[in-house]
Every structure is written in C-alpha cells, then in structure tokens.
Amino acid sequence: MSGAALGIEIVVVFFLALFLLHRYGDFKKQQRMVLFGTLLAWYLCFLIVFILPLDVSTVSMTHSIKLRSLQSPQRSGILVHAVSELLIVFPLSVRTLCHKPWSYIPDGIMPVFWRVVYWTSQCLTWLLLPFMQSYARSGGFSITGKIKTALIENAIYYGTYLLIFGSLLIYVAVHPELRLSWYELQTIGITAANTWGLFLLVLLLGYGLVEIPRSYWNSSRHGHLLVKTYFKASKLMTEKADAEENLEDVMEEVRKVSESIKYNHPLRKYIDTILRKCPLDYQEKMGRNMDDYEDFDDKQNTYPTEKSLVKLHKQVIYAVQRHNRTRVQWQILLQQAIHLEDVAKNETSSTHQFVHSFPSSEPAGWFSRYIYTPTVEWYWECFLKRWFYRLLSIVLTLFSVVVVWSECTFFSTRPVLSLFAIFIQLAERDYNYLYIEMACFITIFFLCTCVYSTVFRIRVFNYYYLASHHQTDAYSLQFSGMLFCRLTPPLCLNFLGLIHMDSAISHQEKLQTAYTSIMGSMRVLSFIANGFYIYYPMLIVILCIATYFSLGTRCLNLLGFQQFMDDSEMTSDLIDEGKELIRREKRKRQRIEDGENRRREWKERYGNPREDYAARNRSSHEMKETSYSDTVSSSNTERDRIELLQDAEPLDFNAEALTDDPLDAESGR
Fold first, then answer.
1. Pairwise CA distance, residues 419 & 410, whole Å
2. How far apart are the C-alpha atoms of 311 and 138, rounded to whole Å?
3. d(CA 293, CA 264)
4. Where does the protein end up (predicted)?
5. 3-state SS string over 511-540?
6. How many helices (DSSP H) and strands (DSSP E) are in the chain?
7. Is the peptide bond before 490 cis (omega within 30 degrees of 0)?
8. What SS3 state is found at 122?
9. Distance between CA atoms of 482 and 479, rounded to whole angstroms?
10. pTM summary value
C-alpha cells in the first residue's frame, strides 16, 4: 500500500479542480491556454493542501519510532536514518507499538514531489500567468500581435523583478563578507514570496473566519435572506441596464466602422473578426445594411487604423461578456427570490407539502418521486434546513475561535498553548497516525476554505470577479490562479507553525517535513523568522473584530458603494425596488405560463393545429400548381399566336394595290 494514498489523492484533487473550473469557466468558448493555465494553478494548490497531512503523518511516525527506540531498554544502539530501515532494525517492543500506516509514503518521494509542485506553481504565478492574462485580454487579431501586446504590458512587471534581483546581487558583491551561496539566495527569494503571501493571507483569513460562520447563520433566517435577495436584485438590475447600454454603444460604434469599411478594404478581415464576437441579432442587423460594391478609395471617407480596431475588438469582447454574465445572473437571482418567497408561503401550510409557484415543466425523476417528495421537501426547506445551518454555524464558530487562539499562541512551546499542536502531540504519543492525518486535513481544509472562499467572494469593480455558471472571464480566472499560487505556500507554513512542525518558528529540534526542507531555513533572515512570521498573524484578532462589526462594509457605504446594511435608509429603498422588480418578473412569467396553458388546452380540445395547417398548406400548394399549369398552357397558346403573326407577310395598303381586283375595288367603294 506504499504510496497508494498519494496516488488516490492526486486523482481526486484533479477532478475537484476540474469540477470547479467547469463551474466558473466555459470550456466551449474560452481559449484552451487560459483553461489549461488556470486548471494547472488550481490543481497544484489543492494538491499541496491535500498531500501535506500525509507528509506530517510520515514525519510523526519517524519521530515516534526514534523516540521509542531510544527509550526502549532493548535498543540496539544503531542510528537509523530512514523510516524503512527503522521498521527493520528497531526493537520488538517498538514494532509492537508502532504500526506502519497504510498511507505511509516511502523515503525520497516527498522531497522530489514538493520540489516539482512548488517551483511549477511559482513559475506560473510570477511568470506565465501574468503573460497569459495580458495575452487573453488583448484585442489583437493575430498570435504575434497578442504576444507583442502581452510583452509590452508586462515589461514593467518583469523589469521590477530584474531590478530587485540585480540590486541584491550588487549588494552581495559589494559586501564580500556576506558570502551568500545559491541555497541562501534561493531561501531569500522563497522568504520574500512567502512574506508577500502571508501579508495578504492574514487579511483574507481574518475576513473568512468571521464571515463564513455568519453567512451560514444568516442562511437559516429566511426573512433576512429574502430581504437581502431583494437588495441584490435591485443592484443587479442597475448593473444589467448599464451593461446593456454599454453593449448598445459599442455595437453602434461597430456598425459605423462596418459601414465605412467595405468588403474590398484590406482591413475588412478585422471587421469580420469583430462581427463574429457580436451577438447574433446584431450580426444580422449589420449584415442587412451592407453594400458590397462601394469603393473604399473615396478620399472623402476617413478609415480607422488597425490600432483603433484592436481597441474596438477588446471593447466588444468585454461588453459582450459582461452583458451575458449579468443576464445569466439575473435569471439565477430571480429563481432564488421566487424559491425564497415559496418557502415563506409554505411555512404556514397545514398540509406539510411544498408547493412551487412555477412548477417545472420537465417530468419528475425517480429521486423526486420516491425520495425527495413534496412532504420531504417541506420538512427540509421549512424546518430541518434552518437548524442544520445553525448547527453548522456554531461548529464553524468554534473552529474559528480555536484558529484565532492558536494564531496568537503558536510561538509558545513551553507550555504548549496552541490547541492544534496539543492535539497532534497527543496523537503522536498514542501512535494514532490516522487521527493525525484526519486532524491535519480538517484543520488545513478549514483554513483553506476561509481563505479561498474569500478569494471567490471578493469583487474589484469589474476588474476581478469570479461568477459561477460559466460566466467568469479569462482575466479573472487566471488572476485567481495567481492568488492561489501565492497564498498556498505561506498558508501551509502557517499551518506547520500552528502544529509546531516548523523549527524556524518553534525553535525545537524535531524532524522537519519534506515540505519545510524545500522551503529552506528561515534562519537566514532571522528578523523575518523571529519577528514578522510570529507577530504579524496576531493582527488576525483585529481583523476578526473589524469584520464582526462590518467596519469595511460601513466604510464602503460612506464612500458611495451601496452595501447591505439593516439600519440604512438607502438599503430600505433598494429593498423596496428589488421587491417590485421581482413582482414584475413574476407577473411576466405568469402571463407566459398562462399563454402556454391556453395553447395546450386548445391543442387537446381541437387537435393538433399544426397538422391541419400543414394539410391546408399542401392543398393550397396543389391548387397553386394546377392554376400555374393552366396559366402556363394559356401563356404558351398566346405565345404561339404571336409567333404566327410575326411570321405572316406584311400587307401594303396603297390604293393601286387595292384596285387590282375589280370586285374588291367595287366592294371597297
């Protein structure tokens, strides 16, 4: 079973990252390079989180075996350097107590694994993903043009790295007494990256530790959730109207450019590329107004340049993506509001059966018929769901309290005050490695949930926004990959500090995990290891207090960014507006449903009108063919008469010709 756990987790984590990417990205429309880069970044970060508990349990087993072999009266005195050798050489008393766990990873695998995963993620976040961001956002019409734009946009970004690295080399050359080796330079670079990540990590973690338990508690309050949905509906409708107006303006500009540049113009191929990115109704509208034969060399016309077309192409991509996103989000939010209103109505139902305002037109599956029946749905939606969310909120609150306490006390080793370190040490004494893995996994999974969920929730205007249901743009996907790659290594180091597995922080002579050995010794920069890494996480207490009292929300509200606040008059107005919008959409949907029901009843009562209409069309077509054949035969007869008249010789109506025959002359007179 050696390495079986590692292989299983590698496969499971891949499908987890693929599922999240499918939820937020669009496999059909987005570029393969964007999808591959984001998937690789997410996959590597999730892999670090899931594999680290196996590394901790392996080191704990090795440490326990060494301690037990030294304390055993029958110890052989042989120094064992590898776990595999220890399992063969250590005494019988140790062998009866220390069992090799099924998730044990052989020696030599983890260092290579961590080295590949860590440096690949760092190359992604600092070099490749910024370039791919600019490439995907570029409005160029060729690969060369996009690469050129990406290099120009990232010139300052990469130049800053070179400047810092060059300054460091010059400083080392001027001070030869430092004598920094390649290993120490590598450690300094890793420490700098982890310091930047820890600075952002504490901010996101302080928000998530409070907001996640509170969000589940608020989800148990149906009235509060419905009011907040009305507020979101009002804001989303404003954003949707703004996106539609922006799309109209951009399409008007595209129409003008399309009319000025005809099919025989050299830049017409760029216009065709832009038109393919426009919605179908706009494409049809612009296609009807085109004139193929106008000369483009008219001196009176002014034509746009290729640079302006690149800018227009970029605007079209952004406007169309934003319009589609707001349209899909409005439909989803409308469905959520209708469902919450149905829950509020069914709470007072005496039949204990959940009734939907707009039942699904699709036939119910076996799950809805036999398991999730209307009665079960009523008990879940109106009774059990709120208590489940409340219980989950209480459990998450306790976890948050434990994390905050451990973050403030993990530097204390005598006595040990960090609760996570106490749990791990108790498990080591009992040689319960399964408990060590589960405790480590639950702890780091909760920390990652607090941090990553904040990354998925935050929104920086329209610059960065992760929207579900395949509505996230390429730039936001890759930006999230960059954040994950920068946040995960310091998060794992912080976790190892909480359980006293990082000797640079705990100052204990213990076996180090393979992950810590790849990070390097932080003692090279003692002021960071003994100062910043220990005292900066204590700021999480202040951030949790600020999040609990919604200080950030209040500041944004004062700056003019409307946020949901119970004691705000503007919030009440937006709630009323959103409620009216939902009521209007429900009436519109009800009219559509009534119309479909009337058509269905008419069809059931009077048969299928389409077949009758097709029969009438066939009979009328046959009549038209008969009349057409009659018309054709009559026209052929008329044509024959005309041809006969054309073949006859012309008559001369002179008087001399008429008097040649006396009888005719007399009759004529």
1. 9
2. 9
3. 8
4. Membrane
5. CCCHHHHHHCCHHHHHHHHHHHHHHHHHHH
6. 29, 2
7. no
8. helix
9. 5
10. 0.80
* Backbone φ and ψ of 460, nearest 5°: -105, 85
Q: Is the distance from CB of 118 to CB of 516 less than 8 angstroms?
A: no
Sequential DSSP letters for 175-217: -TTT---HHHHHHHHHHHHHHHHHHHHHHHHHHHHHHHHHHHH
State whether residue 459 is helix, strand or coil.
Answer: strand
Per-residue pLDDT of 304-357, as tens digits, reads 888 899 999 999 999 999 999 999 999 999 999 999 999 999 988 888 889 888
Distance (Å, whole) CA 533 – CA 293 = 71
CA dist., res. 180 & res. 174, Å (int) = 12
Give 7-22 pLDDT, tens digit per residue: 888 999 999 999 999 9
69 vs 79: CA distance, rounded Å? 10
**Is the Cβ–Cβ distance between 85 and 37 less than 8 Å?**
no
The pLDDT, as a whole number, for residue 80 is: 38
CA distance 395 to 630: 88
127 vs 149: CA distance, rounded Å: 15
Tell me the two tokens of residue 561: 């960014």
Sign of CA dihedral 169, 171, 175, 179: negative
The percentage of the chain sitting over the pLDDT mark of 90, rounded to a whole number, equals 32
Determine the residue type at 423: F
Show the tokens assigned to 53: 């508990």
Q: Which residues contact 385 (CB under 8 A, 6 or more apart)?
A: 220
Q: Tell me, what amino acid is at 240?
A: K
In the structure encoding, which two tokens stand for residue 194, read together? 């982890």
Radius of gyration of the chain (CA): 38
Angle between helix axes 32-71 and 419-429 (nearest 10 degrees) is 60
